[in-house]
């Protein structure tokens, strides 16, 4: 597999790992999202331990107002964070 294919597989595997903990296996509830943010994004999202921040992130991600975060909404988060990191590193060159 190419590096991009490996990255895609890792996103799917990671999402599934957390979504599979409770209820609907295809979406993240707020607690699953919080755990994912804390464990997988760590220092990148320093507010992952702040419940108010997690509530806001959840609300912003849940664009279809289903009270859960589906894979598409999760990928939007990863995409936005990736763009921010890219811009940060380009600015340092």
UniProtKB/TrEMBL annotation:
GO terms for cellular component: cytoplasm. The keyword S-adenosyl-L-methionine does not apply. It comes from the Eukaryota. SMART domains: EFh, S_100. Keywords: Calcium, Metal-binding. GO terms for molecular function: calcium ion binding; calcium-dependent protein binding; transition metal ion binding. This is EF-hand domain-containing protein. Gene3D superfamilies: EF-hand. Residues 49-84 form the EF-hand domain. Coiled coil: none annotated.
């Amino acid at each position: 597999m190419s590096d991009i294919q490996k990255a895609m597989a890792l996103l799917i595997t990671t999402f599934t790992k957390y979504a599979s903990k409770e209820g609907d296996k295809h979406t993240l509830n707020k607690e699953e999202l919080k755990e994912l943010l804390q464990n997988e994004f760590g220092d990148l999202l320093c507010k992952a331990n702040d419940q108010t921040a997690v509530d806001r992130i959840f609300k912003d991600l849940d664009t279809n107002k289903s009270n859960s975060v589906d894979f598409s909404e999760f990928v939007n988060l990863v995409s936005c964070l990736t763009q921010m990191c890219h811009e940060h590193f380009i600015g340092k060159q």
